[in-house]
Amino acid sequence: MAELIKMPRLSDTMEEGTVASWFKKVGDTVKEGEILAEIETDKATMEFESFYEGTLLYIGINENETAKVDAPLAIIGNPGDDIDSILANKDNSSNDKKVENVEPAIEKVIETEKKEISQPPSENTHVITMPRLSDTMEEGTVASWFKKVGDSVDEGEILAEIETDKATMEFESFYSGTLLHIGLNEGDSAKVDSLLAVIGPSGTDISSILENPVTPKIDNSKEVSIDQEDSLEPVSEPKKVIEKVGVSNNKRIFISPLARKLANDKNIDISKILGTGENGRIVKSDVENFQEPIAKTPVSSVEESSELHDFTDVNHSQMRKVIAKRLAESKFSAPHYYLNIKLDMSETIAFRKQCNSIPNTKISFNDIIIKACAVALKNNPSVNSQWFDDKIRYNNFVNIGVAVGVEDGLIVPVLKNADKMTVADISKSVKEMASLARDKKITPEMIQGSTFTISNLGMFGIESFTSIINPPNSVILSVGAIIQEPVVKDDEIVVGNTMKLTLACDHRVVDGLTGAKFLQALKPLIENPLSMLI
User: Fold this and answer.
1) CA 350 to chain centre
2) 316 noted as active-site residue
3) Within 13 Å and on the Cβ side, how many CA atoms surround 65?
4) For residue 528, which phi and psi values (nearest 5 degrees)?
5) Any catalytic annotation for residue 511?
6) DSSP secondary structure of 360-418
7) Segment among 202-216, 444-458, 484-498 with least mean pLDDT
8) What percent of the chain has pLDDT over 90?
């Protein structure tokens, strides 16, 4: 069934939003939790995740266009779904809703104004309420606080992590000051617009605010500029609040809070950035794409010239950001331990040579290892498992991810039901998906759903190494090079061909004995590949 996505209210003062960029186009497949678009509010630029899975059937607001909260943003569903009726129903329901809610809205405004007159908040004290982070959100849960009472908070800093009915999202502060009060502890839930926190000058008495927690009313029909800080003149049509953060050569610089934070983090002079947003406003993408000319230190002698350092800064690609985030989360949350084993590859070398003598057949050692892992996993479901916050999942199918290095980082195509494939089938599939990955033509479906991962650096001469587990999987296998070295056979020292494997395990799921038994089952399968054909 097709789902209508509306312009979300990403802050308690947001009345309208601008689509800074779309990460998907009509016809693309969308997964739950994928970034759908980047939305500019009156305070910041935020990534907006999809809460549904399906195909993007409709885009209602193009890039750089602005629309009111709850305006049709997109429709996600199945190809062929009727979107005209959905848009028609949205228009009708919106009109009905406006008529029904006129009196309650007026009463709420009157009551709010009364409270504000009797309990006016300090000019620099701000009440933060539970934000509505999705169009279906009724209440939220504080997953974690990144600040504690008494901490200094800068505009654009992450204040807390909020769990909605669909996802967990980071919530930025739209104000600067001291965190004076926390209204909800970690794990607590509350309705949208409930008191979340209070930010203001240190030492402020907020007792009156806590007795009547009313968010200071902000008039978005006024535009703030550097010349009008103390006298705001209303304009005829509502406009976004534009933030002025500095002056360079008597020229105003308009920049979003998120862009300013990124510029500060990168030590970039904002006067050198060309803004592409409304009225020349600097937005997040302007900072990310900014490249300052390389400066070279002047030298006064030939000796000093040898000390010059030249460098090039390259902005993080989206792939590199995802890799960094996922692997950091895995390394610092999953307790890794490592098991090592050495294999005798003599019979494996002979088996591969025999297979490749067959016309139109070309298999690699990696193909044999993949097949052996698939067979061993089928017989050891305790390793073919995944960790989730509330459960451990033991999979009855075997999907093996194969790490492939590409220009921007690492992609892990997934062989679905690898235990049911022949070595030749595995070889063909790996080659096809590796080629698609390097050409940037691989689809999301091809890199999702792994239950086990293999990383092979043997072809680069790496004898042994350790890998970081690909969550939510519980293990990853690192494969080293086949090397010739002296070995003992029948009480004699002979030249042998050996290979080292390292199994990284998540101790929350796979105990040492479980991991050892898996390697014990895997060893004879690789050393004698013919056993897999019997």
Assistant:
1) 45
2) no
3) 14
4) -135, 80
5) yes
6) T----HHHHHHHHHHHHHHH-TTTSEEEETTEEEE-SS--EEE-EEETTEEE--EETTG
7) 202-216
8) 38
Distance between CA atoms of residues 443 and 446, nearest Å: 5
Q: Which of 165, 205, 219, 511 is catalytic?
A: 511
Where does the pLDDT of residue 43 fall: very low under 50, low under 70, confident under 90, or very high at 90 and above?
low
Q: Which pLDDT does position 279 carry in this prediction?
A: 62
305 phi/psi in degrees, rounded to 5: -65, -25
The pLDDT mean for the chain works out to 80
From the candidates 82, 91, 316, 507, give the one annotated as an active-site residue.
Answer: 507
Report residue 359 as tokens: 């016309």
187 residue type, one letter: G
Write down the residue that tokens 């990853």 correspond to: 476
- 238-261 as b/e, with b when 16 or more CB fall inside 10 Å? ebbbbbbbeeeeeeebbbbbbbbb
On whether the CB atoms of residues 481 and 459 are closer than 8 A, the answer is yes
Structure tokens at 325: 């985030």
Going by their DSSP bridges, the two strands 29-30 and 3-6 should be labelled as: unpaired
Residues comprising the chain, all counted? 534
pLDDT over 80 (residue 276): no
The per-residue pLDDT for 119 is: 39
What does the pLDDT read at residue 175? 87
In this predicted structure, which of 91-95, 180-184, 325-329 has the lowest mean pLDDT? Answer: 91-95
Instruction: With cut-offs at 50, 70 and 90, classify the pLDDT of residue 252.
Output: low
Q: Does the pLDDT at position 178 exceed 90?
A: yes
- pLDDT, mean of residues 342-367: 93
516's enclosing H/E stretch is helix 512-527
Task: Please report the domains of the chain, with CATH numbers, ordered by start residue.
Answer: 3-100 (2.40.50.100), 103-211 (2.40.50.100), 323-533 (3.30.559.10)
Distance CA 483, CA 280 (A): 61
By the 8 A CB rule, do 333 and 425 touch? no
What is the distance, to the nearest Å, from the Cα of residue 5 to the centroid of all Cα atoms in its chain?
A: 20
CA dist 447 and 406 (Å) reads 14
- Output the pLDDT for position 442: 81
